[in-house]
User: What shape does this take?
Amino acid sequence: MTKRFDYFVIFAEMRTGSNFLEENINGLEDVICHGEAFNPSFLGYPEVETLLGETEAQRNENPFALLDKIKTSEDKISGFRYFHNHDVRIFDVILNDPKCAKIILTRNPLDSFISWKIALATGQWKLTNTTHLKTAQVDFHLEQFEDYLTEMQNFQMEVQRSLQVSGQSAFYVRYEDLTDLDVVNGIAHFLGSQSRLDRLSKKLKRQNPRPIVEKVANFEELEAAVSSIDWFDLARTPNFEPKRGAAVPRYVAAPKSPLLFMPISPWPDRQIETWLAALDHTDPKELRRNFGQRPLRRWKNTHPNHRSFTVVHHPVARAYDVFCRHILPIKDDRYTELRRGLRRVHNLPLPEHPDDPPLSTTQLHACFCEFLRFLKFNLAGQTALRVDGAWASQSQIIQGFCKFAPPHMIVRAETLEDDLKLLTQQVGLTWYAPPSAPPLQGPALAEIYDTELETLAREAYAADYTNFGFKPLEI
Assistant: This one.
């Protein structure tokens, strides 16, 4: 019979019941779990010298040799427990291996945190005889718990995303399920085991069955603290935009000076390019462009102490520039179909013919308002029209940059000169003031700007307002 899996991993954390789960899994005749095989502090279990013929030093030198021995065990389905701080070298390997069964064990994070604190205080990590039980009351510290919670959640999200993109499934089990014989036998079935348990192990005892109010010395402080935690992430800014690439070919570098500009569409780059060229006393045509990832790495290696930067602009000004540059002009052939969709489906009162009279100030305001409303739905994935790079959120574009490398500095348009001066000081360059920014396309924004536009832009670009702290324009 062909094995469904070659081996398995239990993704868990300390104080989630993983010892008890392993104890029961090892009760199956054809399954064996080798403890925390890749814990940097010990080999499988404390005070164990060898595991499958590998010493701790050998495993530290080459963890894949031990992993291969676990994979190729012929008599039993072999596996191990893996926590977020175990050997990272094998993490991607086991995650991306469909022949590795994934069991994901979770527990209420507050319970596991308090249990961890008690174990630290008592030094007791396992209990097999209740006469040896050690108890303690511990203090709760919110900052410590928030760090713990963030670390655990980030690890779980990384595991979940990897399984999603690789099309794998996992067996999810909660701490409370570990005393359910049917669930544990369900794990056996998932692994492809032919064995089943008649009863659960009685060897390990639950260490802290008391209510949490008895385990925490400052319980009232805990109550007040956890009530402030947004458990369901209600304050998050939903983001359904398509993810964007690193856009490396659009980067612009000075030929000599160690500065790399990562432009955000659609803002004109001429101002920054002129400034970069002036630093090297050269023509803008001499700037380095059209990078691939390998040539860009080469540029970075040959420009020590380099700095990369990008420039963010106020969402209203940026959206208005897009609107005047690409949406209003009938002659922009790239956006012909999109303009047609905006008129027909989204009711933008755009001119249809070259000889149509220009929009009045009132009409322009109304049309731009409708464009901002369209952006709100478009960026949320609620329209049939593409999310164009010209109006994609700056937050999403910068996240795309980070797929290659994050910018060292995010420069703000309203403080451009001060920020660029600081940048040149960091790399030891002579300061040159940048030229004035090119004017916005079309009628002046000041003629139509009001609180309605600001509100609509904030609804469309909520992530940008949150991430960059934009306030209303002063014009």
In short: The CA atoms of residues 84 and 152 lie 7 Å apart. The radius of gyration is 30 Å.
